[in-house]
Amino acid sequence: MRGGMIRMLSVGLLSLCINSVYAGFPQMPDDQYQQMLNEFRANPAFLVEQPHIIRQLSPDQLANAIHELGFTHYSWLHPVSMRGGQVPSLLGTPFDQLSLMSVRGGKLVPVPLQLDDYDTNGYVYLEGRGKVNGVVDVLDENDELLFMYRDTGDQPYTPDVPGLDGTIVKELKFERNGKTRFAYIVKGSKQRSKADYVQYDFEESKAETTFFGFDTRTDNFLMFEDFYAKVGDRQDERVLDAIYANIDTQILSKFSPHIKMNTVEHIKALPVGAVGGPVREAVIIKLGLVIAKVPVATVRAQMNIFDQALSFVAKVNIPGVDILTRFLVEPHIYVSLDFVDESGARVNSAITSEPNGYALVDGTMSEFEKQMQVSVDQPWLWLSSTHGWDVFAKVNVPEDFRVGVDMLYIDDPNYHVSFESFPGAKPTVGFDINDIPKDFTELVVDALFVFPDRLGMGPRQFHDTEFSVWPELEIRDIRVSGNSSDAALAVSGQ
Fold first, then answer.
1. Cα gap 393→277, rounded to integer Å
2. Domains in the chain and their CATH numbers?
3. For residue 343, what pLDDT band results from cuts at 50, 70 and 90?
4. How far is Cα 425 from Cα 477, in angstroms, rounded to an integer?
5. Quick check: bond before 271 cis, omega within 30?
6. Which of 305, 391, 427, 488 gives the lowest tally of CB atoms within 10 Å of its CB?
7. C-alpha span between 395 and 375 (Å, rounded)
8. Residue 107: helix, strand or coil by DSSP?
9. Confidence band (pLDDT; 50, 70, 90) for 293?
10. Whole-structure pTM value
């Protein structure tokens, strides 16, 4: 009897703790939740068309919906990127003749497809900035086709499936862990999805996606005036102070004074234009290097805004930089996220004593936190807010330009820098790029930040089984016209 009472009391206390932890989270009634799932299965654009829906889901409901729809926490947010050279028979086709469809709810429906030209420097082409690589608005070998993996279908197209008004020219077949998904490139269709995962106002420097939103200073794109999540129990509260990029070096001798430059006082990130589409906004940035109030050099960069990700790419290619670097001593480039206050968050990185464990953000540096590290071959880190969203970050190191990469992590409310809006590192997390080779002519800084609803597993397991392993894509020739009564479907691999 006594043991039973103890068990009942334990269960009651556990339930009370769980309910108190999740008390602030929204919860959609079960009948509405099931209706939402049914509508989403048939309509990939459902969450975009009904943006209030995601705000009504608890973390468990969102996680379960992702699973029920056949995705994982990473494949749900993943944008598929293809190049024109992967579909050579379509080269030379005008962009407005191409669209993407998938079978959802028993019919073929249009899904968002973004087609972008690239310039000769490897950035998304912005008219008036750089030279286009090929022909504008015509599919060339280096042009990019972008769509969300979540918009594919788990059923293949067959001639009895209604909804086709153009000609299917390619079947995209994805396979992973025994699961298969499909999408179809269509030529000549008048149907287009109206869904827009990312909306960016260049004049106001504001962005909003299905999952998060932000507002930056118009004169410095990397300085945020707001950054908020649209999920969890702290919706619309500011979570990020800024994305910092700092440079620290000495000249000629390690005994010389340190020269320090930051993205507020010395490196101005001025947005000069944006190339938008339904899947991504590519914000073209001019990074101006100012020393002693004198402009010294300009570097072009690009910030890519996705539904649940940000990526920052900068190519440092300055005439004479190979000579300058001979005089630099132990240069460091720091790229980091400075959070407002994520006390109680969980953190880990690629190299720790517990690969699937975590430390807590609590204002002190524990031994676990002090030992967290990354490397050039394992350059990733993780933070879980425990409020319905996570951050998984990685810096990409080119194979032909191997630099050093170390962990940057500070958990200290008393740590201050003069230009931050919210004092303290609660925490500050990122990467220290160092050991830069001498005599380089081009330095590429490429950092990726993804914001899953949560990992659904330990960080090491997430990296090894989700983030680093992507379904195999088979592009198959297929030709069937919506205007033809011919029910035969010819499919061949390409």
1. 24
2. 79-195+471-493 (no CATH), 198-456 (2.70.98)
3. very high
4. 53
5. no
6. 488
7. 10
8. strand
9. low
10. 0.88
Map tokens 């939103």 to a residue: 213
Token output for 231: 């999920």
Encoding tokens for residue 394?
């990685």
By the 8 A CB rule, do 226 and 215 touch?
yes
For residues 261 and 53, what is the distance between their CA atoms, to the nearest angstrom? 43
**C-alpha span between 254 and 260 (Å, rounded):** 14
How far apart (Å, rounded) are the C-alpha atoms in residues 75 and 419?
Answer: 37
CB 361 within 8 A of CB 337: no
Asked if 26 and 58 count as a contact pair (C-beta separation under 8 A), the reply is yes
pLDDT, tens digit (0-9, with 9 covering 90-100), for 225-238: 999 999 999 999 99
The pairing of beta strand 281-291 with beta strand 267-276: antiparallel
Mean of the pLDDT values across residues 132-136? 96
Other CB atoms within 10 Å distance of the CB of residue 409: 24
Tokens of 365: 């540096």
208: which residues sit within 8 A by CB, 6+ positions away? 198, 199, 200
| E strands present in 70-204 | 79-83, 98-104, 107-111, 114-116, 144-148, 167-176, 179-187, 198-201
Q: Mention every residue, 6+ apart, whose C-beta is less than 8 A from residue 70.
A: 154, 179, 181
Residue whose structure tokens are 């690589």 = 133
Scan for tokens 């039973």, then name that residue: 4
